[in-house]
Design brief:
Elements (H helix, E strand, L loop, with lengths): L1 H16 L2 E2 L4 E4 L4 E9 L4 E9 L3 H5 L4 E8 L6 E6 L1 H19 L7 E5 L3 H13 L4 E5 L3 H15 L2 E4 L3 H4 L4 E4 L18 E4 L12 H6 E5 L2 H7 L1 H8 L8 E4 H5 L12 E5 L4 H18 L8
Parallel strand pairs: 7-8, 7-10, 8-9, 10-11, 11-14, 12-13, 12-14
Antiparallel strand pairs: 1-3, 2-3, 3-4, 4-5, 5-6
Length: 310
């Protein structure tokens, strides 16, 4: 995770500095599902890749396959040859966590109460906690999930992995005890009352990624310094921002800036300890390209992987 955080941080900096190429995601609907193509090129990192993601809801029943399948094709920037094909599932989970790690590094208070609050207890929630653990001193995590067995699994796995105290919240309000909050759920409606967020909190908004769904209410957005991975993505995909914008509860100027602008110093991040900061993550192909290059380089170094002649 620490290596991935460094790679993703450089990718966001490249996006702001103009050395990244990030075309719009392409979607093709077939009779059975949706196919997405996410290409990106990072000139300085020498990472050229395309992630192919498919969402086929009948896969589990008909074929015993996951609903969502992802593969990443990594190319040689000098020749254009595809030099590696790798699974995109775990890669996507780690790179999404890494983005929140970068955002937390730059936006959360340097001194926190050491408590992280996590909404959701699935794979992405685990990655969020892991990434935050890498960039801040954490003494405790509080997790809330509607499914008790999922929450228990989260606690058992992550407490051992990070040697960290993790407790299960009985209500959303308990999660807000943390100075750093992550929302990593499939909820389409707000998870908590924005009036109850304590001053100085940093929030990573991860779960909602369609125009009509949101994990964060309008009050949360209005009270926060809002930073996103991409302005374009936030105003086209993120219901957390689109809904209050369309309702004229915020203007476009309320969106403060992109994470890359904070990393490169083009814009200042947090200005005081009482400020509430928010990172809205949508997921960008530059993260996939940077992480795929990292995985490939590590595989070569470790002598793992299978060579295939085509």
């Amino acid at each position: 995770m620490s290596d991935c955080i460094n790679a993703v941080e450089k990718a966001f900096a490249e996006l702001t500095n103009g050395t990244a190429v990030l075309p719009l995601r392409i979607g093709i609907k077939s009779d059975m599902g949706l196919n997405l193509y996410m290409p990106a090129y990072l000139k300085e990192s020498q990472a050229l890749a395309c992630k192919v993601v498919s969402v086929y809801k009948d896969n589990p029943i008909k074929f015993g396959l996951p609903t969502t399948i992802g593969k990443v094709l990594l190319q040689d920037p000098e020749t254009g040859e595809v030099k590696c094909i790798m699974d995109g599932g775990y890669l996507t989970a780690v790179r999404t966590g890494a983005a929140s790690g970068v955002a937390t590094k730059y936006l959360a208070n340097k001194e926190t109460n050491g408590i992280v609050g996590i909404f959701g207890a699935g794979v992405q929630a685990k990655m969020q906690l892991w990434a935050i653990y890498e960039v801040r001193k954490i003494k405790k995590a509080i997790v809330f999930d509607l499914l008790e067995d999922v929450a228990n699994n989260f606690i058992n796995e992550m407490s051992k992995k990070l040697n960290l105290e993790i407790t299960k919240a009985n209500s959303p309000e308990e999660v807000l005890e943390g100075d750093i909050i992550c929302t990593a759920t499939s909820s389409s409606t707000p998870l908590f009352d924005g009036n109850k967020i304590r001053p100085g909190t940093h929030i990573n908004g991860i779960g909602s990624h369609t125009p009509n769904t949101r994990e964060l209410d309008t009050i949360t957005i209005k009270r926060s310094l809002v930073v996103g991975d991409s302005t374009e993505a936030c105003f086209n995909e993120a219901g957390d921002i689109i809904i209050p914008f369309k309702n004229k509860e915020i203007t476009q100027s309320h969106f403060y800036g992109e994470l890359g602008e904070i990393i490169t110093g083009k814009k200042q991040g947090r200005t005081d300890a009482s400020q509430i900061t928010l990172f809205k993550s949508n997921g960008l192909a530059i993260q996939d390209a940077a992480t795929a290059k990292l995985v490939y380089d590590k595989a070569l170094e470790m002598g793992i992987g299978t060579n295939v002649n085509i």
